[in-house]
Amino acid sequence: MENQTIAPSIVLSGLCDIPSLQLPLFLVFLLVYLMTLTGNLLIVLLICTDSHLQTPMYFFLGTLACLDMGYSSVTIPRMLYDLYTQSKIISLQACITQLFFFIFLVMSEVFLLSVMSYDRYVAICHPLHYTQIMHWKACVLLVLGVLMISIVYSLVHVLLLLKLTFCRLTPLQSFFCDLPQLLLVSCSDTFINVLLILILVILVAGGIFALTFCPYIIILNTIMKMQSKAMRSKAFSTCSSHLTVVFILYGTGLFSYFDPNVKDHSAVDKVASVIYTVLTPLVNPLIYSLRNEIMKKSLKSFVCRLKILG
């Protein structure tokens, strides 16, 4: 171990090794990033300016939009830099910093989606007590709790990661500093890190799965008992938007982290990583705005106000 040279930087394999595709990919993902920021900023702006959207449901949706902007900004700008310069080299400190914020923001989004499931459960199954249960103080405390748990979760992984030595120049088979790939390029014993990932993922994923999907068993049962078709349609629309976001994020994320061939990070794995790190923050505002009548009315009103001012 003493004779090994400690690597001060990490090499990323990036999205593509073909030089002629670097600029087209840069332009495509730059456009995607700008659209992501614009769409999520628009949702936050509508929620802040429209009194009809200042309810717990839209408070959580605005928080989700902020998290989407955050974790897309952790990965995409660095990817754009590597595509433009074709350097694909990142310092170890920057790599671990990126990893910390990525885990923190993604876990915050995952926990927030569970909170949004509970919000839908209260709204549909206990509508008369909704304002008493989901008051503003409770909503703020739930979001703060989500952020605190996510910070602790991220810190645990990063602190153990800091104890490792990275002395190999083997490229990370990814376009960002992903935890499983980062452990593969360490020359230290990573048994504890891998065991911790396994234990925490099982515990956290199991808890999140229960908190996210169990309320929907009761929700669906309640919806089917509704007499009004309009009420059933509205409830299904709200729930389907939330579940669509959940399945996109969970499906691609679990595919990447539970891939048995993580050492052979194939093109399929990179596509899955692109979906949950790049495309999910882009489609979230589209899913919630296009399937939400109140949001569409608010957007039309906002556009009309801009035309009047213009």
UniProtKB/TrEMBL annotation:
Cited InterPro entries: GPCR_Rhodpsn, GPCR_Rhodpsn_7TM, Olfact_rcpt, Olfactory_GPCR
Gene3D superfamilies associated with the record: Rhodopsin 7-helix transmembrane proteins
One GO term describing the cellular component: plasma membrane
Classification via SUPFAM superfamilies: Family A G protein-coupled receptor-like
Pfam family, one: 7tm_4
Ranges of residues in domain G-protein coupled receptors family 1 profile: 39-288
Parts of the chain that traverse the membrane: 25-46, 58-76, 96-118, 139-162, 190-223, 235-258, 270-290
The entry's keywords: Cell membrane, G-protein coupled receptor, Membrane, Olfaction, Receptor, Sensory transduction, Transducer, Transmembrane, Transmembrane helix
The organism's place on the tree of life at top rank: Eukaryota
Record's bilayer topology term: Multi-pass membrane protein
Signal peptide: none
Subcellular location(s) of the protein: Cell membrane
Main location group: membrane
GO molecular function: G protein-coupled receptor activity; olfactory receptor activity
Membership in a protein family: Belongs to the G-protein coupled receptor 1 family.
Record-given protein name: Olfactory receptor
